[in-house]
Design goal:
The protein has 288 residues and is mainly alpha-helical. It has one domain (3-209). It contains 9 helices and 8 strands. The longest helix is centred in the middle third of the chain and has 25 residues, at 167-191. The protein is globular.
Length: 288
């Protein structure tokens, strides 16, 4: 196929899996050429792209993770070969579990083939599992947070495409994981238990690194959407109060720094109002 008609290419130099020593050629996206046409930014800071008449629908998130086609060890490229002997043992021990999970939710997938949406979603499921086995030096909680939100997005897209399969439930599952992980990330940023400089692109999407401001905002939006489902009303109110604190911090940062994007400040204001409305309803419900 002509390069002008392709979305991706294969690296010339083989990547060697540190766990099973399998060699494979990593798939990368071509940049430029009008392949990606930005449409809108969602309230979760996900960039939605228009369908391209020439190349169809493109999902840049599909290509961010390195996945060994043999043992399914998965990581972001900078972490893929940065593994210790102890980690390799754990990765090898969980090989069957990874393969069984992929078969359960997707059937047989061949990561030697060009990525599609199924493989993209599977890669984030695998990433969350594999980063559970990693040491704190590679900032695994940061990676699990961003992988969870990206996985939630792709599983939601799969649910639209395959409504008869349980992908919408999987999307909700990973949204809940993202909700838990993002609050852990905020704690880690405060206590330094994981190195923030090892987090890399904090996302949440691949088009822009929103950094610390994005983490504050994502924690709040996920609370509105998922923390509000806590059965304990007092716990829900506590979650909302915590999110208001983070949004106030973000709004204050935006007022003091011209570098904070205006669209993020506007989204923060809208979200703050939503939280106040939700808290009023909850307090009335609880009688406080």
């Amino acid at each position: 196929m002509e390069e002008s008609k392709k979305i991706t290419f294969r690296q010339k130099n083989a990547t060697v899996c540190p766990a099973c020593r399998n060699e494979f050629l990593r798939e990368e996206m071509f940049t430029g050429g009008g392949r990606l046409i930005a449409d809108k930014l969602t309230d979760e800071l996900r960039m939605i792209y228009k369908e391209n008449k020439k190349w169809g629908t493109i999902y840049p998130l599909n290509y961010l993770l390195s996945v060994c086609p043999n043992c399914l060890f998965t990581a972001y490229p900078k972490d893929f070969n940065d593994v210790t002997d102890d980690e390799i043992i754990k990765i090898q021990e969980m090989r069957s579990a990874r393969k069984n999970a992929v078969i359960k939710f997707f059937g047989e997938l061949d990561f030697n083939q060009d990525r599609n949406l199924l493989m993209g979603a599977a890669s984030y499921m695998l990433a969350v599992d594999c980063y559970n086995l990693r040491r704190k030096n590679v900032a695994p909680t940061f990676k699990k947070a961003v992988s969870s939100i990206r996985g939630a997005w792709l599983f939601s897209d799969l649910g639209d495409e395959y409504p008869d399969r349980p992908y919408k439930k999987m999307s909700f599952f990973f949204y809940k994981k993202a909700y838990d992980y993002y609050f852990k990330v905020l704690e880690l940023l405060q206590n330094g238990a994981e190195p923030a400089d090892a987090a890399g692109n904090m996302g949440p999407d691949s088009d822009k690194n929103w950094g610390y401001e994005g983490i504050l905002y994502l924690s709040a939006i996920l609370t509105v959407k998922f923390g509000s489902k806590e059965k304990d009303v007092a716990k829900r109110i506590e979650n909302f109060q915590r999110s208001k604190k983070y949004l106030s911090r973000l709004f204050g940062m935006g007022k003091s720094s011209k570098s904070t994007p205006s669209d993020l400040i506007e989204k923060t204001r809208i979200l703050y109002d939503k939280i106040n409305e939700a808290m009023d309803n909850l307090e009335a419900e609880s009688g406080e």
